[in-house]
Design a protein that fits this description.
Elements lengths: L1 H9 L2 E5 L15 H15 L4 E5 L3 H10 L1 H4 L13 H15 L1 E2 L3 H10 L3 H5 L6 H18 L9 E2 L1 H8 L2 H4 L13
Helix pairs in contact: 1-2, 5-6, 5-8, 8-9
Amino acid sequence: MRIAGICRDAYGSVLFIDEAYSLNNGSSTSPDYSREALSTLITEMENHRSDLMVIMAGYPDEMENLMKGNPGIENRVPYVIEFPNYSREDLCSIFLHMAERKFTCSKELPATSKKYFDSISENTLNSKEFSNARFVRNLFERTWGKAAVRMQFKPNESLILLLEDFNNAVSGNEFNNLLTKKEYKIGFF
């Protein structure tokens, strides 16, 4: 089986399973595959506990369901480490670090990006659907893409991330919809 082979390859090392909660989902094509994969993983974790470390990552609620769904795995996972979401300041810092590491940035970019990240609503930051650092990477890549399009007819010039590149990037729906929204009440006041 494929899981046993992957575990064998990790003997003497670490097996990192991202989105491990997916091991708890049966698929329509093979409903027993998930159960079999999880069973094999548990057997490998038990039989090779001295030469195999398994790290499983995933969203807290889904990981809790995985653990509750199979007591065998819950008993073999002695440590749970939860990482809090990044703050607005952290997200801005990550964005600027990515931008400044790869490109020259206009002097207005830090203040504008801080203002943008500060305007993300609390509901968004705490939402399960908010991808946090992945969101920042996507925004950085979008900003970089806008700058690349702007510079396409200037091949001899260095690419500089400008305020307009950032503003064009955040004007897209996926970035613009995250800003603080005003609540509108319907009815009589």
